[in-house]
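Supplementary Note 3. Input sequence used for the single-chain structure prediction.
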Amino acid sequence: MTSTTNTLALVGGLMVVGMVYPANASDEKGDPIVLETPPRFAFESIQPTFEDESAAPSQLGRILVRGGFVSVQVNVDQFGDNIPGDAANEPSIAVDFDDPSRLVIGWRQFDTIRSDFRQAGWAYSHDGGQAWTFPGVLEPGVFQSDPVLEADADGVFYYYSLHIEPTFACDMYISTDGGVSWEVPNPAFGGDKAWMAIDRTGGLGHGHIYTSWSWAAACCGFDTFTRSTDGGFDFLVPIFIPPAPPVFGTMSVGPDGELYTAGIDFPSFSNSNFLIVRSSNAQDPDKTPTFDLGTQVNMGGSLTGASGPNPAGLLGQTWVATDHSDGPTRGNVYMLCSVNPQGSDPLDVHFVRSQDGGATWSAPIRVNDDPNNNGAWQWFGTMSVAPNGRIDVIWNDTRNDPADNFSELFYSSSSDAGVTWSKNVALSAPFDHSLGYPQQQKLGDYYDMISDNTGAHIAYAATFNGEQDVYYLRVDVAEEPGCEGDANGDGVVDPLDSGFVLARFGCPVGTGDPSCDAADQNGDGVVDPLDSGFVLARFGECP
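The predicted structure, written as discrete structure tokens, is reproduced below.
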């Protein structure tokens, strides 16, 4: 594997050599600086604009189908077409839990791959993700990065975004109309690789917004945690997370309002020390949060960056999620990460479980079911937990390409608290993960997903158009997916399936003809000899 040292940090999505400590956000007296709203925010709200107002309703982007799983392109123009020459990556998704038809995805928008300059892209859907409107970017001409989106229990959407002027910090944008428009952003401290969690428990901390970030490029030195108790308008002056601020990880609110923050003890990727930190009183608005538990966690490997299929970025971040179900697993805490394990595999997806609030942890479990030590990369491992306790996981996987040039989005789930996992299923067509790099050679640093009782909403980036684009995909776990290669749906992969595909060469995919979609077995949007080869390679696989 490729390792880094404490002289190399991922900063604002950029690889910066020589940065070890950032400047603290303090004045000459050492008092914390309260970030003021910069002059550029001279508007009342951010409204979508269209050259042709008749084009304002949501537009269908490129649609790709594999095994019944439908990927819909999100970053499309006002007519629903791909935007040639741009790049979009690092997506984050939010869902209105009272009205799941309302979704918002944010991402890093590069208007041209000839530049590293990126802005805060976003799109919204009010029909459950079937079609999307991409109004543009939150602030045209303003550098922004590392988007994180969430929604509170009342359907208010929040967009937390990094900027670097005059220093590293984040802004909080708020939308009360399902992502159509956004209010003037509020200064929210922050820094590189920030994350956010919102309390939706109905308890003491209901509505609280928690954020944390990496200290390597941030507003406030090693003080990397803040909280808002008034819906994202004001934020606590950042405080330190003991025993060490976790970086490159996420946050989760437990069923009783307890807050978990996960990550690694940077600065070294090699032999990463994974951390989980808990605050039981962050939910109390009258108290300054303290952290009553900080534990190292054995993930069975180390977090990896700047190598393999993502040469200038992370190969995944540390995910933490909590079980809010009413059964015996309620309160369980889960961690997941793509890690470099023992052996010749460069990366596997590993999962661990705590049944005592993060104090002790299970042995690492390997989620991907490909043969051990086959050299495949399972990268961008991402996890979410449904209200009924089901655990969903996605990742990029090179198992079907010995040269490791092509990745596919894979999925697995567990209904027994992560003890066993479902057979891995490919959700997307293969894509060349090296295509469409901006000057910055990576596909971002993360994907995102949100689970409900019947499935999961997924936001991911891929290169099906020969460039980096953002896609939405819905996994419905109510029914078992069909067997790959069974084009005619008779439960057997045999010569009849080859004939089915052959008879539909050139058939238009994604236009409403289900037989064309079924014949596109590899999900690349075209029915051609590659689909016949896909079927032939799977003869006899269905039970």
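The first helix runs from residue 495 to 502. Helices lie at 495-502, 514-519, 529-536.
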